[in-house]
Design brief:
By secondary structure, this protein is of the alpha+beta class. The chain has a domain at about 35-120: Alpha-Beta Plaits. It is built from five helices and four strands. It has helices at about 5-35, 55-60, 85-90, 105-110, 120; strands at about 40-45, 65-70, 75-80, 95-100. A four-stranded antiparallel beta sheet has the order 2-3-1-4.
Length: about 130
């Protein structure tokens, strides 16, 4: 027996589809960040959970990275690095993954992440 169109079932299927696509896109971006180094410019640098946030920030600064925004939970830092070898040096300093910051601009500008725009939209500033 055909029950016809069900708005609740349609909404549930649409939500499921959006979540599946989002997980696939984010998984691909995260996997690429763990494998390939981004070009010079704005980037996100991820450190391990056990890493002290102060140590992580000092490692970024020691390798001539300019802080763009605060660290998210002390693990994810938004930095500007004009040097093409910065990403390789950060991996030697213990970074788990690095991504081009503009790869995530669509997410930050969509409002999905709250007030995280400062992570990618601010102008670089050097730490004292």
């Amino acid at each position: 027996m055909d029950q016809g169109f069900s708005p609740n079932r349609f909404a549930l299927n649409l939500l499921t589809g959006v979540v599946v696509v989002w997980v696939l896109v984010m998984g691909l971006l995260l996997a690429l960040g763990a494998r390939f180094d981004p070009p010079p410019g704005r980037m996100l640098v991820l450190f391990a959970a056990h890493q002290n946030p102060t140590q992580a920030l000092s490692r970024v600064v020691r390798q001539d990275g300019l802080l763009i925004g605060g660290g998210l939970a002390g693990r994810l830092w938004s930095v500007y690095a004009p040097d093409p070898n910065f990403a390789a040096r950060m991996r030697r300093e213990g970074a788990l993954a690095l991504w081009r910051a503009d790869a995530f601009d669509w997410m930050f500008s969509s409002g999905c992440t709250g007030a995280s725009r400062a992570l990618t939209r601010a102008k670089p500033r050097q730490l004292q």
